[in-house]
Amino acid sequence: MADAKVIPFDDDRSRGSAAQRQARRRGGDGRRGAAGEPGGAAAVRPLPGRAGVREEGAVSREEEPPARPEAEGRDGGLERRVAAGLAFLRRRLTGEYEVDDFGYDEELTDQVLMSLLRPVYEKYFRVEVKGVENIPAEGGALIVANHSGTLPLDGLMMQVAVHDHHPAGRHLRLLAADLVFVLPVVNELARKLGHTLACAEDAERLLRQGELVGVMPEGFKGIGKPFGERYKLQRFGRGGFVSTALRQGVPIVPCSIVGAEEIYPMIGNAKTLARVLGFPYFPLTPTFPWLGPLGAIPLPTKWTIQFGEPIPTDGYPPEAAEDPMLMFNLTDQVREQIQHTLYKLLVQRRSVFF
Question: Which end of the chain is more exposed for a tag (fewer CB within 10 A), N or C?
Answer without folding.
Answer: N
